[in-house]
Amino acid sequence: CTANVCTVPGCSGEWSDATAQSGAKLSHGGGIVVDAGGSVHGAWSGGGSYAKKPVGGTWSVEATGGGAWNGAFALDPSGGTHVSYFDSGSNLVWVSSRAAGSTSWTQTIVGSPGAGQYQDTTSIVAEAQGGLHVRYLSQGALKYAYRAAGASSFATEVAANTGYASGSTAHACNSLAVDAQGGVHIVYFAAHDSVWYAYRAPGGGWSTQSLDDDASLVGAPPYLALDAQGGVHAVYLGAISRQLRHAYKPAGGSWSKRTLVTKVEQLFSPALAVSDFGTVHVTYQHEGTLNYLQAPPTGTSLDFYNVLASGLKISEVARVAVDQAGGVHVLYERDNAV
Prior knowledge:
Layout: E1 2-3, E2 15-16, E3 31-34, E4 40-44, E5 49-53, E6 60-63, E7 69-75, E8 81-87, E9 92-98, E10 106-111, E11 123-126, E12 132-138, E13 141-147, E14 155-161, E15 176-178, E16 184-190, E17 194-200, E18 206-212, E19 223-226, E20 232-237, E21 244-249, E22 256-261, E23 271-274, E24 280-286, E25 289-295, E26 304-310, E27 314-322, E28 328-334
């Protein structure tokens, strides 16, 4: 599903809808990215499928050679594609990569989180220098892994202790971002019902901070994105309040929180993208509908709101991306198709 929704408040275009692949699953994880030329790239079925749609063209889909649970997707500056995922057969986190111009995928082990971690998300980011950053959970430890461009293996370290063993973040989401200076940002669950923020400055160690103690534990992990000015954004659902909330920290500033939607009946993970203009784009599920909203980075007003799809066979997760022209692209599962 793609749309041309302007980032100017009150300006909107018309949504269009297209099936990328039948018989596919987004609930096992995936992602969507729009490149500088406007081509749309996506991954789903736990990272087992990768697809591309050029401007004015149709979707082409191929197998990545990997994929199982809670896959995440990244596109590097050279055009290389990368998918992280948890394989429940080997109990390992992997990355499946295809270099730009290549037709083959290679698989690399990231870490060994142990049995049962298939319920927990992976996240992956490709930095401008070509390095890969991966986040995953391992028996209560929030793990961060990095592979420099040209390296053959990942180096891993503990970013934080989450206070639980597994099953916390079913339904994959993006909770990892890397800023232009190389700082690493993660939002995550801790102590079963709190949203926390972890940060590592370039060359430094990890620091953590509590963001909210009213957060949904199962099925609705927080989602993270950075804006062009270095601001950090997170969206999540309150377990008690049932509110859809947005937390924002400008570069060099402090965190603030606001409520975007006062009542959400389904505790499934929201998705988030932030445009170059700082506009916040969010998708979430409510009473059998997939919803989209657009809002400025701060304040209490919404610029735009849409119900995108409805019915009993809508996936519990969706993904959203914004292109350089301000167009909004949403990836979701409906009627056993993506």
